[in-house]
Amino acid sequence: MKIGFIIGRIGGVDGVALEAEKWIDVLKRMGHEIFIISGQFQEWVIDPEHDTLVMEMSFFSPESFWGQKKAFFHPDTNLDELCEHIDLYSGIISEKIIDWATKNKIDLIISENASALPSHIEMGKGIALAIEKLGLPTITHDHDFAWERGDRYVSPHARINKLVEEIFPLRLKNSFHAVINLNAQKTLKEKFNRDSIAVPNVMDFDMEFGLRNDSNKYLRRDLGLEPTDKLLFQITRIVRRKGIEVAIDLIDKLDDNKIKLVITGNYKDDEGSEYYYELVNQIHELKLMRKVILASYIIHNKGLVGNGSERNYSLSDGYAHATACTYFSTYEGFGNAFVEAVLAKRPIFVNNYEPVYWPDIGSKGFKTVMLENNILTDKAIEGMSEIIYNENLSKEIAEYNYQLGKKYFSYEALQEKLEELLNISKKL
């Protein structure tokens, strides 16, 4: 089957792009031919036969930038001018999608979040116009929806809000939804009477990940740490919903100079850097400067790269040196960092984050130390301490979680879901 992916950006490290790559990998393993149409190929080797660039589809294009600003942030704009802009560029994008699908004889289209979240209105409307005209079966891989983002996608203009409600999520007869958690599945049914399949985020459990090797053997030294230090890794971006302040409080309460917290995110992910500064102030107020390491200057999302005397490490290298991982988020669409820690065979200290953790992950039987409402109880701290100091227990828990992860969140599990979706698409 010839399967076409529509995505605003492919490559890079954002969640939509990463999960799209995994779908592409598994579908190729299943023998399907994959075509991609995107507004940006980031750190991606373009295959001219299968990859098509449409600049207007980029989130960073002037068309999208202007449309977003005028739709959601500048109520004094000329509304007729804005609607003309949306109609013009959605038409251009629609025509290019139709040409792409026709030229490549696409059998099935997969829209990657572009038909769920109005972060590019022109692309979302363009996809809807193209899908309706083409009549091709379409799967919308919905990672998040407008109503899950508070008032971010509420426009001062009633006409724009009506347009968003009509187009996002896509609800054509020849389309079907794949969502990433059970709450989204329930909400989609309640709001629109649309059925869907919940497809969790996955990892390739056949890959080597989180292993110590020659490439990362100097990581501790480069971070100014000792071989005997016990490292808790916070391998997430620095944004408020990640609950990093709880991990810092944990280090304070554990009260052991050998236990260190390594935070891999950087201030650039925190708009305005307000939360980042709060964390830095917290570290100074608790006098934890020697026990909390902000490591984004050498730990990045990509692989190890030599650069003179400077060394750069990947997230996999970070997991390789972790005693355990902290993951005290208050909200997640799914939780890639959880699955990564499972794959790396590292114990996890987690908050029961809404609306996903317990229904989609925890209830499957994973062994963690779990907080409720990010409250560090004496019992929870005792449980974490036992795992940190008891290496045998730590390995036992990590191995148990790894086997569960392989069952529920592996490429094999994804293939089963994709086979189910492909069977449904044949009936659209």
Structure, described:
Helix content is 41%, strand content 16%. The protein is α/β, with parallel strands linked by helices. It folds into 2 domains: 2-202 and 411-425, Glycogen Phosphorylase B (Rossmann fold, 3-Layer(aba) Sandwich), CATH 3.40.50.2000; 219-408, Rossmann fold (3-Layer(aba) Sandwich). The strands form 4 sheets. The protein has a 7-stranded parallel beta sheet with strand order 5-3-1-6-7-8-9, with helices on both faces. A 6-stranded parallel beta sheet has the order 12-11-10-15-16-17, with helices on both faces. α1 (15-29) packs across α15.
Looking at the structure, the CATH topology of the largest domain is: Rossmann fold
Overall structural domain count:
2
What does the main sheet amount to? 7 strands, parallel
Tell the overall outline: globular
The radius of gyration computed from the alpha-carbon positions, rounded to a whole number of angstroms, is: 23 Å
Low-confidence stretches: 303-309
Number of helices: 15
Architecture per CATH nomenclature, i.e. the level-2 architecture of the largest domain: 3-Layer(aba) Sandwich
Task: Identify the strand order in the major beta sheet.
Answer: 5-3-1-6-7-8-9
Q: Please write the CATH class name of the largest domain.
A: Alpha Beta
Number of strands: 17
Classify the beta-strand content into a percent band: 15-25%
**Average pLDDT, all residues:** 95
Decide which structural class fits the backbone. Answer: alpha/beta
Helical residues, percent: 40-55%
N- to C-terminal distance: 15 Å
Instruction: Please name the fourth-level CATH homologous superfamily of the largest domain.
Output: Glycogen Phosphorylase B
